[in-house]
Amino acid sequence: MATNKNPSRRKRPTSRRKTDRTFQVLLASLFLLVFLVASLAVLTLVQRNRPQVAPPAVATAPSPPQVPAPEVPPCATVPEEKTDHAALQLLIERALWKGGVAFSNRNVVLEQGVLHYRLSGALPEGSWYNDLRRVLEQDFPSVSLEQSIPPGQRLTISMHKEPQVVLHFQPPADSQVMVPPRGKVPGPKAKIAIVVDDLGRDLEALRTLLSLDLDLTMAVMPDEPHTRQAAELAHRAGREVLVHMPMEPDSYPRNDPGPGALLLGQDPVEIRQRVSAMFEKVPHAVGGNNHMGSRFTQYPEGMRAVFEVMKDHGLFFVDSRTSPGSVAFSEARQAGVAAATRDVFLDNYQDVEAIARQLRETVKIARSRRQAIAICHPYPETLAALKREAAFLRQADLQVVPVSHLLQR
Prior knowledge:
One of its GO terms (biological process) is carbohydrate metabolic process. This protein is of the alpha/beta class. The chain is about 35% helix and about 20% strand. The chain has helices at about 5-50, 85-100, 130-140, 205-210, 225-235, 270-280, 300-310, 330-335, 350-370, 380-390, and strands at about 110, 115-120, 145, 155-160, 160-170, 190-200, 215-220, 240-245, 285-290, 315-320, 340, 345, 370-375, 400. Strands 6, 7, 8, 9, 10, 11, 12, 13 and 14 form a 9-stranded parallel sheet that branches. The longest helix has about 45 residues, at about 5-50.
């Protein structure tokens, strides 16, 4: 019986059949894919060409006629700029002083919200009017100035077209001779003392203070790098020198008053020794005032020990009043030590305009009580304010004096 010795010949028909089936399946799949793509294209075309049917109308209520909103006139808007009357008044008064126009609080009257200045003299000549307008416009863009007819008699200064200040100039007639009534003596000048604390650290600040045409009182710290030199410079410039005496504050030890300070835990002997040492370190000192000391100045026993030394050396004391409970002034008077009390702190806020307002407050107090004492520090803002307001502090009815002129003995 013959046999086929080549097995590959027997398997070949099976392999060929498998290939044919695979080709048929691929061909069918390709046909089906083409059919699906064509059907999708036809459906898309039909959908695009279908006429759009409007939805059924829904009955709605007729809308009311549109009424245009009324127009708001420009003058009805609230201006963003706020009037700082104190700052406006300060600029005006500074310009008057610069122009040589003297006045006092008796010449200023508030009538129906408008300040009226009754000024003895004519409106300053030259560029004064234009300079005033330019200065005011820098801080108050809505300001306007209007002179009366004939010009020079009245100047109205308005904000947002509302009068704020009216300057009434009253020049004397040419034939009128200003003679004081017989037997009437001009009243005494109001006196102001300005004590500058914390000196001895920066000689440049001290030199700036000494260059001012103001009789300032210099309070020098006893343990600073330039203590002795600062006291010598102030004395040679003719300024009164105090020892700025470090004393314990309520916030001690968080706030340290410095080396050699007077503290509550010290006995009277140590307090007297420390006070004597302070005055030995500050040459030419004629008195003292407290540096900090909000706690120590409430301590009667300690202040009595301080004043024992000061009385023996003929020194006086100025209470800075860093605490409302201070007994320093009363204890000084009981000990027979000449004393005074601070009225105004000028630079609690280190801002030039704020310091200028405090200077004006000091002037008001001085005119009311005939004297006032202010205390400040050698901050850059304080130096700038004092330099700018020096002319204001030299008015005819004012006098800046050493603090020793205002003591109670």
